[in-house]
Structure formats: C-alpha cells, structure tokens
Queue: 2 jobs
Job 1
Amino acid sequence: AETIRAPRLIIDAVDDHGAQLAELRDGLLSRPARIAPKFFYDEQGCALYGAICALSEYYPTRTEIQIYERCRRPIAAQLPPDGQWIDLGCGDGAKARDWLGPARVRRYIGVDFAADWLKTTLAVTEQQFPGVDCLGVVTDFTRPFHLHPVLNDCPDAPPIFFYPGSSIGNFTPEDALSLLRSIRSHLDGDGRLLIGVDLVKDTATVEAAYDDALGVTAAFNRNVLRVANRLLDADFEPHRFDHRAFFNATESRIEMHLAASQGHDVRIGEHRRRFEAGETIVTEYSYKYTPERFCALLAEAGYGNMHYWTDERGWFGVFVAEA
Ligand code: AVJ
C-alpha cells in the first residue's frame, strides 16, 4: 500500500472513498441486500454504540474490561516490553491506554477507518503518555493491510496487535482467518496478538444483548440507513424498517437485519430498489466462539503457544497468541 505521511497521521491511499461508496451501494442493490457493519459508525452511530455498551443487557464490553482488570498482570506477562502497540479499530483508544503502562509500551499506533476520531484519540493518548511515540493510520483493515513500513520505523520494538471488543465476530470464519493471517504476517519471534472474543452462551442472554428493552440497538441498527442516505444520496425512511436480531445456532452467530414493514421503493443514488414487506437488509453478523473453536481458528491461521483468560461465567475470552 502506498502511504501519504502527514504529521502523526498516515492515510492509506489505497483506501479511497469511491471504493467504500461502491461497496455500500452494491450491497444495497444485491439480493439479499446487505450493509457492512463498518458503516454503522458515523458520529451518531458511535454515540449509540457507546449507549449500547452501557446497557444492562449488553454484557460483552463490561465482561471484557473486567477480565482485563482482574488479569492485567498475567496477561501483560505474556507480552514483550518496549513494544509497539497496534490498536486495531482504536475508537476512543480507552481500552488500549490501560495497557500502555502495564505492558511498558514504547510506541502507540492507532488504526481506524474514521480519521476524525483518530486525531482526538492520538491527542488524548499523547497527553496522557508523553513518553510514548503516538501515530495514527487511517485504513480499512477489513481488507488486506500492510503496516510493515510503519512498523519498520522501529525495528527493535516488537509489535503487539490489540483487537478487543469481539470485533473479530463481525467477520465470517473465513474472513476472520484472512484477517488473523494478515496480522500474523506482521509478527515474528517476540510479536503477539491480544484479542477479545465473545463466547457461546445461552441464547436468551445473547439475544437480549442485541435486542434490548429500550430499543437502543434498534436505533443503532436503523441509523445505518441515515448513513446510507448521506453517503449515497438515498431516501431510506428508517421508521419503515424493523429491527430484527436472533441467534443462528447453525452458524453460531447473532444476525441483525432491518426488515421492511411494508413493501415500498427506495431511491439509492441513480438507482431505485423495491423492498417487499418483510424483505430484509443484513446489517451485521456477530459470531460467537467456544474457546476451543477460537484456538483452532488461531492455529489454522498459523499461530502457536496460546494463552486464554475468561470471566467466572465463561462469557468472554481473551487470547494471547504468538506467530
Ligand atoms: C462492536 C462488533 C463488537 O457485535 O457486539 C453491538 C457491535 N452490534 N450491538 C457486537 C454491536 C449490536 C458489536 N461489535
């Protein structure tokens, strides 16, 4: 990937806006219609996701943070000191900042799709950790990515890839495998992957987490239609779509859909598409793993020597793996 270097921010030039718009439009015109979850996170979507994380039904965030708080030392003991911390999908960077001290991190690299967020995250991190060299990379790491030139700026600082929040759950196992391999291609001897993964549990608990009583997740789901309207000049009316979330046990995933409540036409830029009553747009898959299945996926991606931590209910898993 060719990169353009600005102070503290590197923008992956391959990642042009046009390709993103084409992906969004093609997904909405295909049958069944789909929207990739990365489009959820405009400013309003990020705020709604923050609200989801505070819901009593949404256990993943607080369970993961609890594991980090309780197991900080043993986890940090598996990570090399003086490394470069690559925060994949860093968002506000809060989860990563809690590690910079305990893991004795030398360099912080925030990676995100959203440049605006990244600037704020870097400013906050730099202010709190003046001794840590902070850098941002704007890229879409759901496509193959190459951070080698950035990492090579600091060749003696082993990379630690941090991918928390069960974001890996948004990928099909096949795509998750490609991403894990892509990460592994950046690791050698001392490098590590630290990843948080939501685990299989009783269906009622998982379904409630994605269909909360206040309708916050429904609002988060429908908000993606406003994103589509803005990016594609479309005329979706969010209230004409119902939020659906259910656990597909065969695939071991939560599926989120938006279902048209009545048949109607939608304009999508220069196109027009009919949605029949009940027809759905797939907006998100959130895969749930057993620890064994996730370790098997890591092994298939070429990782070895894995360590694993969980909470007392076994609801969420934190894994450290070596190349
Ligand atoms: C951010 C992908 C981890 O799958 O749980 C929350 C997003 N979607 N509620 C998840 C989400 C609906 C979330 N991840």
Note: Residues 52, 60, 165-167, 169-170, 210, 217, 284, 286 surround N,N,N-trimethyl-histidine (CB under 6 Å).
Job 2
Amino acid sequence: MNIAVLALQGAFAEHRQMLQRMGVDSFEVRQASDWCRPKDGLIIPGGESTVQLKLLRDLNLLEPVREAIAGGLPVFGTCAGLILLAKQVEGEAHMRISTMDIVVRRNAYGRQSGSFFVKDRFAGKPIPMPFIRAPYIYKVGDGVEVLAEVGGKIVAAREGSQLVTAFHPELTSDTTVHSYFMQLVKRAL
Ligand code: GLN
C-alpha cells in the first residue's frame, strides 16, 4: 500500500512520520509528475488552505486530484485539507477540490484564541485533539457520517472514502484516526 501525501505546504511531514510509524509507505506530491505515481489513498495536510489551493491550481493538480477523489480514491483531509474538500465554505464562492458534502466555517474559533487541545471521542474512542486556527463543520449532507463533535461542533466526518478532521491527529502519537483512514483505504482496494 502506498499513500500520496500532498506536500505543497503545511504539516505533510508529520503525516508521513505517522504513516511510517504504522508501517505504511507514503510519498510526497509536489508536482504533477508525482501525482502520476500509483497510490491507494491521499492525505491533504493542515496548513493554509488558500496557499494550498493556489499551488494546486498553478501546478495543474486541482483537476486531477478532484477527478481521482470523485472516482473513489480514499482521501483524508486535516484542517486546511478539510476546507479544501468541502463543497461549501461560508463566505467563499470559488471552487476548491469541493468533493465532500459539508458546509464549513473557517477560523471558526477566532484568529487569536483559535489554538487549543482537548481529549474527546472520535468514532467513540477518546483521543487527543490539537486544534490550530481550526475550521468546524456546521452542516453535513445526508450521506455524511459525523465521527466527532467537540463543544457541540462537528470536527470529524466521513462521506464514502472521504475522511476529514478539523484537528491535527498527526501532531500526536495516537494512531486512531490514521488507522481509521487505512481501513477506508483497504476497503477501497
Ligand atoms: N485556518 C487555516 C485555513 O483556513 C487552517 C488551519 C490549519 O490547517 N491548521 O487554511
């Protein structure tokens, strides 16, 4: 199994380290030629969604990535990755990857006090959840399963083989969310 990790900006190295600890191979996608490599799943890291979107467009990666996800390639988006996957982002009309039926509010906890740490349940299991200027999901479509809520706000969800978290599991040593993603990848093989 080989997981592509979008490595244009943000916390991609931490995702690769997490996969490595789990014994899963991965490679970095920095340009269109990297995208041609065979892959069983894709991780879109946290960082700055506006910067990642611009680079995806400039590098001619946006369409191929969207098509692959629409075609069933399992994807895991954290934070900025969640924003890129959302069909709707409050106050923004432009297209992103826009494959997941969720409505998202960016910098939802305020810009200054937006970083915090909690332990809460993901798919029923308590795990550490670091939030960094995080978005949250305030509406999900019919086909979307809510996997975590913190303070009454949806912070993790799944639609088919698309998984998103508003927090950063890759910044912890807990492999629960990445293992969950790898189950989606295995199921899609
Ligand atoms: N607020 C950032 C954005 O809009 C996301 C923050 C993060 O990925 N930690 O892209």
Note: The chain has one domain: 2-188.
